[in-house]
Amino acid sequence: MTLPPPVAATRPHSFTRHGVTVEDPYAWLKDPGYPEVTDPDVLAYLAAENAYFEAQMAPHQALVDRLYEEMKARIKEDESSVPQKDGDYVYWTAFETGGQYRRWWRKPVAGGSDELLLDEPALAEGKDYFRLGAFAISNDATKLAYAIDGDGSERFTIHVKDLTTGALLPDTIPGMLSDIVWSADDAGFLYGLANKEWRTDNARFHRLGTDPTEDVELYHEDDEGYRVAVGETSDRRWIVISTGDHVTSEVRLLPADDPFAAPILVAPRREGREYDVDTHGDTLFIHTNDTDPMWRLVTAPIAAPGEWTERIAPSPHFYMTGVDCFLDYLVVEGREDGLDQIEIHSYDPDEAPRRIAFPEASYTAGIGDNPEHDTRVLRLGYESMVTPGTVYDYDVASGALTVLKVQEIPSGYDGARYATERVRITARDGTEVPVSIVYPRDFPRDGSRPLFLYAYGAYGHAIPPGFSTGRLSLLDRGFAYAIAHIRGGDDLGQQWYHDGKLEKRANTFTDFVDVARGLIAGGWTSAGRIAVAGRSAGGELMGAVVNSDPELWGAVIADVPFVDVLNTMLDETLPLTPGEWPEWGNPIEDAAAFHLIRGYSPYDNVRVQAYPPLFISGGLNDPRVTYWEPAKWAARLRATKTDDNLLLLKTNMGAGHGGKSGRFESLREAAEEHAFVLWQLGVES
């Protein structure tokens, strides 16, 4: 007997805001005791959906297994990172064959045996979920502070290990949500504690051997929309306390050798101005968007941090994304017309910068792990949609690039079988949207082949044209794979981001649809032969485009989708909501924002029409996109849509925003999603 799809009960619920009454019959799926979820009706519905998911996927388990084995065969099981020197040691991580998690190692530069610093497999033993967060070795290299999340809720607990004895110290701090920065004397460290709304509004100092309840709060942020972070400058002389939301930031500096000193405020917050800071000697190097969304670099004396002098002016084509100060030079990273660039600058402003040249027309590159301030060799990372991840050392003096490691694919990989292009497709308002495409070299552009289209489009987060071993399972079955660099990300600069947020949010959705139609017009595929995917805010994108243009999509993957936008932005008790208002608008106070969000929120705009096949996922412990968002959306879709296409909802009952932990468990989830796509598009079942 075929298991019928679950039908969620409807319960009368409504609210009125700005003169509009909104009916929400699935509001009951939000457990009032969240983050504890104990409501038996809620748990029963999620269990029924999971059972339906398993029943529908069961006949295709052989395909899932086949895809999983393909993906696993492309992963080097005993993978290890390239060792990197930091002080008296070189450090690296390594997996063992069959291992889900990595081990952290080091050995003395002067010679000696390997030393196991942290054994993730042992820490994860017996846990359904495990994630290592902050990892910070003391300046004298004798202690390690690290943080663990055991259920996906992003509620981390700090532990401290004595590296000379291997013993854990009694210092244990639950409820942490930040990085960890040691003071110069290693007597203690800075961190941020999450408040009851699970927001980091503080920077605290913990002195080793003391009760964490006695930790000193060095900074407290009163604006509920701002988040506090801790870090350090490249020379480790200064501890950085930064606070901000999505549009405004503010930085304070503390001497690493005196964290209780009065902090130096670099520049008071000014709405719309963001900046970050590094130091060289007694000079601040401030990377800021104060005059232009392409950003610029200014300097100021630490003794007079408000006296800004322009060092590198903004450029209309080069989007400056970051600056790192080393002892003898500084590195400026950015994107020129959307492609990554790395420049080496002398501290002498009269010397011309040098740009590192890379061999391909479309790629992604950036500086990697470079912990030492005084280094003549830079560690870089590079990849493209056809070139596996490559680790380089770059000799700053000679300009020579040395390959240290190329991602190994044990089952074999021949890059000559694939080709990549970067095309531009004109959106409906005349804007040209870049699209990165990889495809088999014999791919015919006659509309006959399937295409997988991915995008994100929010928070100024660019999606680089990088390499993926999992993607090969689609390419080898005749797919082309495309990344749409739509507005809402900052692929072409911060203005590209601004043009896809707040009142311009619709550009993100229409860009994606117009890219799809442009790819159809170019013969890359045809309507109904496009599989699309998005995660989190990219899941919101999926919800919007299945409402607006359902006929284009042959299969839709919406992972932890942010689809109940209106309700979430109206709930200021949720961890992220106040900090998200600069991104989406504040519908509590602003009627225009309320009507705007209500006009595109996917859950609120489900309509009586046919929808494509949908694979929706959620995480019970997800603090970012709460489990009830995908659950409510799936329930409303089931009750409203007019088609017989498959709709699956899978809720990870022991995980959060990132899905299951462990490299092979996450591979199996990817295999499930790929199997759904192949099945629904009729490619393989």
Summarize the entry for a quick read.
It is built from 12 helices and 38 strands. It has 685 residues and is an alpha+beta fold.
Key attributes of the depicted protein:
19% helix, four-stranded antiparallel beta sheet, 685 residues, Rossmann fold, eight-stranded mixed beta sheet, alpha+beta, single chain
| Annotated CATH architecture of one domain | 3-Layer(aba) Sandwich
CATH class of one domain: Alpha Beta
Q: Provide the β-strand percentage band.
A: 25-35%
Strand order of the largest sheet: 31-32-34-33-35-36-37-38
The tally of beta strands, per DSSP, is 38
Q: Could you characterize the architecture of this molecule?
A:
The protein is α+β, with helices and mostly antiparallel strands and 685 residues long. Among the domains are: 1-6 and 13-76 and 551-685, Rossmann fold (3-Layer(aba) Sandwich), CATH 3.40.50; 278-314, no CATH class; 315-407; 414-526, Rossmann fold, CATH 3.40.50.1820. Helix content is 19%, strand content 32%. Strands 31-32-34-33-35-36-37-38 form an eight-stranded mixed β-sheet, sandwiched between helices. It has a four-stranded antiparallel β-sheet with strand order 3-4-5-6. A four-stranded antiparallel β-sheet has the order 7-8-9-10, with no helix packed on it. It is globular, with a radius of gyration of 25 Å. The relative contact order is 0.11. The mean pLDDT is 96.
